[in-house]
C-alpha cells in the first residue's frame, strides 16, 4: 500500500507547474562581454538567460555587438541598439543587465553618451570594475604570441560581426587592473538617476565550489593576485554600486555553458532572483 501511494504521488498535478511570473516596470536589455566563443554554439552569449527571463514573463532582449573592440566602440553599439529597441517597442526606459566587459561598456555609455534618460537601472554580473589580472597575465605573454592571438581574434570578430572593426588587443588592454582603476574609473562617474547594482562570482580555489578542470590554471593565477574569482574576474573586482551577492558560478556557467546538475540549479535560481530583486526595487 505504501509503495502504491508513493507511485501515485508522482502523478499528482501541481497547481502551477509553469515558471514563476515576475512583473517589471521596464523590459530588460542585456549586454554581453568580451569574446565570441559562446556565440559559436549559441545564438548569442546571453541568449539562454534572455530566454529564461522570457519564461518568467519578463520582456527581454539580448542582442549581439562586436565581440572584440574597445569599450568606447562597444558602448556606441549598445547605445544605438537601446535607442532602436525603445523606439520599436515604445519603451520609455530599460533595465540593463550586463555581463563581464558589457558592464564597463554600459558605464561608459551612461557616463559619456547621453543614454541615461533611457536606462532605469544597470545590473552588472562579474564585470571587472577594478580590472582583471587575467588580462595582465595574457598581455605579459611573448609579443609574438599576443600578436598571433590578436590577428586570429580580430579575424574571428570581423567575420562574426562585420559591421564594426575588431580590436582584440586594444580591448584586452582596457581590461587590465591598471587601466580600469587609474584611467577608466576616474573618468566615468555614475550617471544620476540610474540605479547601479552588481553581482560577483567565485568558484574553485578559496571556495567550497568546484570548477571545470580546464579553468583551474587561470582560476589559481587570479586567486594569487586578487583572491576568490570565477576564473576570469575576482569577486572583489566585480563589486560596484549596491553589491547584491557573490554567486557560485564560473564566468562561463553564468552564460549557461559547461553546466552540470549542481551548476544548473544555481544558474536557474540566480537569474530568477535577479529578476525578483529588480521587481522588488520597483524597476
Quick summary of this structure?
The protein has helices at 2-9, 37-41, 47-55, 71-89, 101-112, 133-139, 143-160, 168-173, 177-187, 216-226, 261-280; strands spanning 28-31, 60-61, 94-99, 119-125, 195-201, 242-247. Helix 4 crosses helix 5.
Chain-wise SSE layout:
Layout: H1 2-9, E1 28-31, H2 37-41, H3 47-55, E2 60-61, H4 71-89, E3 94-99, H5 101-112, E4 119-125, H6 133-139, H7 143-160, H8 168-173, H9 177-187, E5 195-201, H10 216-226, E6 242-247, H11 261-280
Parallel strand pairs: 1-2, 1-3, 3-4, 4-5, 5-6
Description:
The protein is α/β, with parallel strands linked by helices and 283 residues long. The protein has a single domain, classed as Alpha/Beta hydrolase fold, catalytic domain (Rossmann fold). The chain is 45% helix and 11% strand. It contains eleven helices and six strands. It has a six-stranded parallel sheet, with helices on both faces. α4 (71-89) crosses α5 (101-112). The protein is globular.
Task: Report strand %.
Answer: 5-15%
Summarize the amount of helix as a percent range.
40-55%
- CATH arch. level architecture: 3-Layer(aba) Sandwich
- Return Rg in Å: 20 Å
Order of helices and strands: HEHHEHEHEHHHHEHEH
